[in-house]
Amino acid sequence: MKIVMREYPKVILVLCLLISFSGMYSQVSDVTEAIEESYENYQDAFKKLKNARSYISDAFNAESISGVQSYANYAESEVSSAKRYLGYAEDEADDAETEAGYLNCYDAENAAEDAEDYFYDAKRNLSNAESSLSSASYTSDADYLSDYLNEANNYINQALNNMGYAVDELNNTLKYIRSCGVPTSNSYSGTSQTASCEDLLSYIQDNGYRKSKLSSYTLDSSWLYEVTAYTYDYDIYVIAKIKKSEYSYQTNTYIFCGIPSTNWSNFKNGGYGDSNSYGKRFHKYIFDYKCDCY
Fold first, then answer.
1. Which sequence spans correspond to the domains of the chain?
2. What is the pLDDT of residue 195?
3. Which residues pair with 210 in a beta bridge?
4. Mean pLDDT for the stretch of residues 70-91
5. Whole-prediction pTM value?
6. Which superkingdom is the protein from (predicted)?
7. Residue 282 above 80 pLDDT?
8. Per-residue confidence at 168, pLDDT binned at 50, 70, 90?
C-alpha cells in the first residue's frame, strides 16, 4: 500500500486549522471512531475463530466419538460468537460509509462500503461453518465427522480471508478520509512550513496521551530498543528508539505519524499470518509512516 506523506505545520498553524475547520474535523473523527470500533469487533471475532480452530484441532485428536462431538460443539459456540462480532463490525463500517458520504468523500465512502461487504461475506462463511459443526456435534459416523470438521475449517479460513480484505478496506477508508478535503498548511501560510522532528516529538510527548509502550525486554530485537504510541487529535503517533548498533545501548529517536489503529494493533499483537518478530512487523506496519519533518 503506497503511503502519502503528510505535512505537519507548526503549532500555530495547527491551532488555526482546528479552530477554522472544527466541524469538518468532527465529521472526520466520526468516521475514524466508527472504523476503530469496527476493527475492535474484528479483533474480537478473530480471537473467537482462533479458539474455534483450536477446538476443531482437539476434535481431530479426540479418542472417542463423544469427545469429537463435544469439541465440535465448543467450536460451534465460538463461531457463533465470532459471527455476532462481525455483525457489529459490519454495522460500524456502514456508519463510517454514511459519515464519509456526508463529507462527499467518495473514495472513503466506497472503501467503507467494501469493508461492510467483506464482513457480510465472512458472516455467510461462518454460517456455513456453524452448520457443519452442528452436524458434527450430532453424528456418530466417524467418516462424516471428519468431513464435517474439514468443511468447517475451510469455511473458517474463507471467513478469515474475507475479514483480512475487510481490514484492508478499513485502512483505505482511514487513508482517504484524512486527505479528503482537508486543507494543507500551504492554504494559509502561502509557503511550506514543516515542523522540526525534535519540536514535533516534544509536542506529542507533552500534549499527547500515551497509549502503549513496548520495552526492549518485550521487543527482544537486535535494533528496536523502545516503541511508544501516543494519541493526539484522533491520530496515533509512534516514537521509536532505535539502537545505533546491535550491541549498543545508545539509541536514535524517530517519530512516525498518522498510524492507523489497525496497523498499531497488528504491530503490537500480530495479525493473521504475521511474523512473531516485532522488527519485521515494525517494517510492515509502522516504518512507512515517517513524519514529514526535518
1. 11-18+191-289, 22-177
2. 66
3. 230
4. 94
5. 0.60
6. Bacteria
7. yes
8. confident
Phi, psi of 225 (to 5 degrees): -100, -40
- CB atoms under 10 Å from CB of 120, counted, come to 17
Helix (H, G, I), strand (E, B), or coil: what is residue 282? helix
d(CA 130, CA 77): 8
Question: Do the beta carbons of residue 209 and residue 231 sit within 8 Å?
Answer: yes
Q: 84: which 3 cell numbers?
A: 455476532
Residue 273 has pLDDT above 90, yes or no: no
The total number of residues written for the chain in this structure: 294
3-state secondary structure 156-223: HHHHHHHHHHHHHHHHHHHHHHCCCCCCCCHHHHCCCCCCCHHHHHHHHHHHCEEEEEECHHHHCCCC
Across 132-145, average pLDDT: 88
Instruction: Provide the pLDDT for residue 227.
Output: 95
Q: Give the span between the Cα atoms of 171 and 36, in whole angstroms.
A: 10
Largest Cα separation within the chain, whole Å, is: 76
Question: What's the burial of 1, exposed, middle or buried (CB within 10 Å: 0-12/13-18/19+)?
Answer: exposed
Going from the C-alpha of 53 to that of each of 130, 132, 160, 253, 279, the distances in angstroms are 12, 13, 11, 41, 28
